[in-house]
TrEMBL record:
Cofactor note as given: Binds 2 [4Fe-4S] clusters. One cluster is coordinated with 3 cysteines and an exchangeable S-adenosyl-L-methionine.
Name recorded for this polypeptide: tRNA-2-methylthio-N(6)-dimethylallyladenosine synthase
Transmembrane segment boundaries: none
Domain Radical SAM core: 152-381
Gene: miaB
């Protein structure tokens, strides 16, 4: 707490791990906390409330959180008034086990209880007891709490969740267990949130969901394609992005909507996860190499300039040399603009954790390196094909290492670096690509 001009100020610091959904959730938590007087800070030393919004998707994500929990013990000793809470997917997964292991945690709030946050914090302010609330009925979709205030982090790009949870149960994945069943927000609530973001000066929105293609299958008020069209029409919006698309149900209507849309970005994140039917089946991904290939053909026929990105997992149980060779061939055939590559991580409670033929760690690492080498070469070649092309860039601000070099993204989600003159964040400029590289495109303003 700080006293400024005779008034007490309370601060909350968030540590956010995991995916954009967690970033969006933290913005909603910060919005609620503002209503009871907490300002968001990046400075741990002045925080009265510290929240780790956790991820459980891989063991490494959990290890990082355990490390942080350990560090915070010292902070709590120095400042016993500090309230320390764990939220997010690991809170959901581990529940009261977290407090048993680390009693300096004051509260653990599950993914379905985000709206309870202010109540819990006020309870602890008064009584200083432990609170654990991670109730989540695996069979029932919890209600969506609408109307909660949002304290967004950036100033140009807004995250807008359109649905929560996942029904797909890919055999490696913990998400359906910690996020519950799919539920879609009402289209009017999504549109209203986008309108509000635009009114606050945001230029770009990213619609979020574990599988946006199944948006609306629960309430039947609008399909994802229909929602895209509604958001595209919001007055003043410049760019609309979305993730993630599950390949099993990306519809023709969605592809057409992007082709016809005015502000819908031509970038599709379409995680394939693997490139052999044997493993796709074991992963319960429901599509085949052949059907995925057809889908990509369709996308490229209608959206020839679209960028295509993916997620890949190596070392899934039962992966053979032959599977891996097929995977590399598939990458070379599809030619993604870029890929997030992961080593399979055993998640207890998921079917894959019980499978035989778990792959040796050394083999997993070797395959990851081989995979990344192939993908990096492809990313470089695709970027090199953009040499001398003029691309529209939304200006974001100075790059990390050099204030005179500014950065922005193309609509296809490529990072562009250029020498700063008088551009301001939020400007849309034309940049000619002069030095394409694997991860970034360097260019000059024209
Ligand atoms: N709903 C999204 C992804 C959510 S998790 C989708 O279906 O595409 C993000 C990525 O983490 C996944 O695409 C997958 O590649 C990876 N992932 C999930 N569980 C994993 C595990 N147990 N080990 C390694 N990677 C995993
Ligand atoms: Fe996990 Fe599969 Fe759901 Fe994505 S679609 S969140 S990978 S279960
Ligand atoms: Fe992690 Fe939960 Fe997202 S497990 S990837 S933070 S949905």
């Amino acid at each position: 707490m700080k006293i400024i001009d005779g008034k007490a100020h309370r601060y909350v610091k968030f540590l956010v791990y995991g995916c954009q959904m967690n970033v969006a959730d933290a913005e909603r938590m910060a919005g609620q906390l503002a209503a009871i007087g907490y300002e968001r800070t990046e400075d741990t030393d002045i925080a009265d409330l510290l929240i780790i919004n956790t991820c459980a998707v891989r063991e490494t994500a959990e290890d990082k959180v355990y490390g942080k929990i350990g560090e915070i013990k010292k902070l709590k000793r120095e400042n016993p008034q500090l309230i320390f809470g764990i939220t997010g997917c690991m809170a959901q997964k581990e529940s009261d086990k977290l407090i048993k292991r680390a009693p300096h945690i004051d509260f653990v709030l599950g993914t379905g209880q985000v709206h309870e946050l202010t109540k819990v914090v006020q309870e602890i302010q008064q009584e200083r007891g432990h609170v654990v609330n991670t109730a989540l009925d695996a069979k029932v979709a919890p209600a969506i709490a609408e109307g909660s205030p949002i304290a967004r982090e950036g100033s140009l790009s807004a995250w807008v969740p359109i649905m929560y949870g996942c029904n797909n149960f890919c055999t490696y994945c913990i998400v359906p267990y910690v996020r519950g069943r799919e539920r879609s927000r009402r289209p009017e609530d999504v549109v209203k949130e986008v309108e509000q973001a635009v009114a606050q000066g945001y230029k770009e929105v990213t619609l979020l969901g574990q599988n946006v293609n199944s948006y609306g299958k629960d309430h039947k008020l609008a399909t994802f394609a229909e929602l895209l069209k509604m958001v595209d029409k919001v007055e003043g919006i410049k760019r609309v992005r979305f993730m993630t698309s599950h390949p099993k149900d990306l519809s023709d209507e969605v592809i057409d909507a992007i082709a016809e849309g005015e502000h819908l970005c031509e970038h599709i994140h379409l995680p394939v996860q693997y490139g052999s039917n044997h493993l796709l089946k074991a992963m319960n991904r429901v599509y085949t190499v052949e059907s995925y290939r057809e889908l990509v053909k369709k996308i490229r026929a209608k959206l020839p300039h679209a960028s295509l990105t993916t997620d890949l997992i190596v070392g899934f149980p039962g992966e053979t040399e032959d599977d891996f060779a097929q995977m590399l061939d598939f990458l070379k055939e599809i030619r993604y603009d870029s890929a997030y590559t992961f080593i399979y991580s055993k998640r207890s409670g998921t079917p894959a954790a019980e499978m035989e033929n778990q792959v040796d760690d050394a083999v997993k690492k070797e395959r990851l390196n081989a995979l990344m080498a192939v993908q990096n070469q492809i990313s470089l070649e695709i970027n090199q094909s953009l040499q001398d092309k003029v691309m529209e860039v939304m200006v974001e601000g100075p790059s990390k290492n050099d204030d005179s070099v500014w950065t922005g993204h193309t609509c296809t989600n490529k990072i562009v670096l250029f020498n700063h003159q008088d551009e301001q964040p939020g400007d849309f400029i034309q940049v000619k690509i002069t030095h394409p590289q694997t991860w970034v495109l360097k260019g000059i303003r024209v």
